[in-house]
Amino acid sequence: MTTHLRPPKPPRPEPVPRVRSCLIDRLAPEDVPMFWDRIAQHLPLVEAVESSAPGEGPGEVVVTFCWRDRDAEQVLLFANRLTDETQLADTLLERHGDTDLWHASFRMRADWRASYAFLIKRPGEPAPWVGDGHVGLRAALDRGLPDPRNPDSCENRAGTRQSVVSLPDAPEQRWLSRRLDVPAGAVVRHEGPDGREVWLYDPADVPADVPLPLVVALDGEVWTSRQSLPTTLDNLIADGMIPPVRAVLPSSGDRETRWAELGNDGGSTYVADELVPWTRTLRAVEERVVVVGQSLGGLTALRVGLARPDVVRGVASQSASLWLDDLAELVRAGVDTRIHLAWGLQEWVLDAPHRALADQLVEAGIDVEAAPVNGGHDYAWWRGTVADGLRALLG
């Protein structure tokens, strides 16, 4: 059974890059009200550091996370894959004297993007991040508070809103948001071939009987609510980045169902033998099928693309759970499937396996575009980079 498997939790291979903020260190306690009124209108703070020499890669900045709270006893920053769940003390905020300003600063590459939230310990109460084992810790971390001075946010799988830090050189997410001048496609909820919720997307202004390429997007309940893949498709089509497409977005169900299906071959069998044939009975679609997935969904997308090239012609995988399966046997078979392989450079469990998989795909003669992103295991960048995968496969 795979339903009780959990990702490995080794500690960070390198210490959290914690530093001091020159701006905060120069701030006298009596200046803190002015800081909140004038300086901290938009958080987190970003301070320049000495530029890297030419040819040495992206520059770096100091990013400072702040929380305003006179009564807190401790404040924990939970930033996706910056915070190490085995070393939470490394991202506890520091109180600035006897004021209501809590802060923590980190030196990061200027193209970093991540979701983050804060957890607060109140006097006389246990810290919400202590006890209850791994499952309890994850539940507590997933319920952190967003940054009230940062308007950019996304939602995690649990549906909790989290703030997003995007440093100055982070990739632009230009197809993410709804545009008033772009007609919206139709999204209709159905009961799928096995009774689960499935959403079907049809682009605007295309007759229903015109066959179009098909995009299969796993975890459809996320992409039709918390992050809108139909909006991204509308914008990509309007800009001529991809041709008009239809999409089918199946729900992954509850946590146990998701693990049972996407954690093994059941998910790929469902996509190839049930979902795609069912969609063809309802929509006019071409032979060209692209599967999109993240985490366990990314692994399933790779499995079905490598095992069933008779059905799937392209895969856009993001942060695939390669700790479960290195896919070596499927890769050795060699297939005529195009793969856009994206992962986060901050994912210390998945970085090396993704690099190894990219090399193995190249050696097997499989068309792969490796696309590492300076981020974690995170919808903060998945929601934007999914457009890059679709462009690479359909553009």
TrEMBL record:
Keyword Cytoplasm: yes
InterPro entries to which the protein is assigned, alphabetical: AB_hydrolase_fold, Enterochelin_esterase_N, Esterase-like, Ig-like_fold, Ig_E-set, Mycobacterial_A85_antigen
Segments of this protein annotated with the region Disordered: 145-164
Keywords of the record: Cytoplasm, Hydrolase
Record field: compositional bias (Basic and acidic residues): 145-155
Compartmental location: Cytoplasm
Residue span(s) of domain Enterochelin esterase N-terminal: 63-175
SUPFAM superfamilies in UniProt: alpha/beta-Hydrolases, E set domains
Pfam families: Enterochelin_N, Esterase
Family: Belongs to the Fes family.
Protein name per its UniProtKB record: Enterochelin esterase domain-containing protein
